Amino acid sequence: MSHFQPHRHYPMFICRRMLFLALLVTLPLVTSPLVVRAADGTPLTFETDVRPILKAQCFHCHGEGDERRGGLDTRLVRLLRAGGDSGTVIVPGNPDDSLLWQRIEADEMPKGTKKLSADQKAIIRRWIEGGALTARPEPENIAEARFSQEELAHWAWQPVQQPDVPQLDGNTHRTPIDAFIVARLREHGFGHSPEAERHTLIRRVTFAVTGLPPSPAEVDGFLHDDSSDAYDRLVDRLLESPQSGVRWGRHWLDVAGYAETNGGPADDTERAHAWRYRDYVIHAFNANRPVDEFLVEQLAGDELIDGEIDSANPRHRELLTATGNAVKHFQAVEFRWSC
Ligand code: HEC
């Protein structure tokens, strides 16, 4: 059982100004359990099974872009039935006669180097074979089809709730989080490991929070601390350590695409001021900045500055740095630093 008690809420989502919006749209697709549904024998529907594939691979040329390539819009089944320059592209029940299938099977679509996997092709074929079903009547207005009910039902977009903590017999948990884990383990007939001995405990929690091992003196102090809240104080000390921001900020830097050079094999030029953004993230974690503020600062920190930018104002500097990662090559920020 884990004794790690998160005292803070770590931010979960990302990112660069534009990428952020792109991610909002694609995140539910990435996690869509395509292969599982394809195997379980339930009838495939456009919204649940096929649309996620087309959305990722076809919509940008066939629906969402300014121009519908080949005259084809793939966003709704009725638009596929209406078809493109060559007429209808699906014949329900008959994949071999469906232009959509023919072009996919021949790897002519999607255009470009990326092609559909064998699993994705199989799903589209089975869906046409099964009658090209929709889960429900399609919206009249294409603007209402931007996100399907399935996408909007993704867990990440649900309002945060305060669930009831499972009530359990026996002294098997110390925190509400443990209660959820123990309840689920019991549901499946499992118990949990015995509590780790103190030496292991301090090593585990120190690595978890700071990414570093405890010093011999810290281990010694914990082993000889008999007070009932020794563990809680240990966790508090670790969370207060600036190293905890380094350790956890790293995850954010990864997803935000932080890099100190511009990449590219020929001319991997340095982003001389990138480290300022890195330090901003670490500081924001250490300061326990609320997730919404943290996001807004990175997407539009510059817009939060009222009036003239004052480079001597530490908050102005911080807000510009927060947005720095979204600004290509940090040019705008570097410009400000160099004035
Ligand atoms: C990069 C742009 C691009 C992408 C991505 C793309 N297509 Fe196309 N598609 C085209 C162009 C251009 C044409 C018209 C020229 C042609 O038929 O080859 C076309 C034509 C078609 C046609 C024939 C339409 C008609 O009536 O003649 C079908 C069917 C089709 N695409 C299906 C798909 C499917 C399914 C996907 C995704 C798996 C996809 N395309 C992805 C560019 C694209």
Notes on the protein architecture:
Helices cover 47% and strands 0% of the residues. With 339 residues, it is mainly α. The longest helix is centred in the first third of the chain and has 14 residues. The N terminus and C terminus are likely disordered.
Provide a quick synopsis of the model:
This protein has 339 residues and is mainly α.
Bound molecules: heme C
Give the termini distance in whole angstroms: 54 Å
- Tally of separate helices: 16
- Return the structural class: mainly alpha
Sequence of secondary-structure elements: HHHHHHHHHHHHHHHH
Q: Taking all residues together, what is the mean pLDDT?
A: 85
Which descriptor suits the 3D outline?
A: extended
Helical residue percent band: 40-55%
Biggest sheet record: none
Uncertain segments are 1-36, 332-339
* Count of spatially separate domains: 4
Number of strands: 0
What fraction of residues sit in β-strands?
under 5%
* Rg on CA atoms, Å: 26 Å
Descriptive labels:
mainly alpha, 339 residues, 4 domains, binds heme C
Question: Topology, please?
Answer:
Layout: H1 17-30, H2 34-39, H3 46-57, H4 77-82, H5 99-105, H6 118-129, H7 149-152, H8 176-187, H9 198-210, H10 216-223, H11 230-240, H12 242-255, H13 274-286, H14 291-300, H15 314-324, H16 331-338
Helix pairs in contact: 3-6, 9-11, 12-13, 13-15, 14-15
The chain binds heme C (HEC).
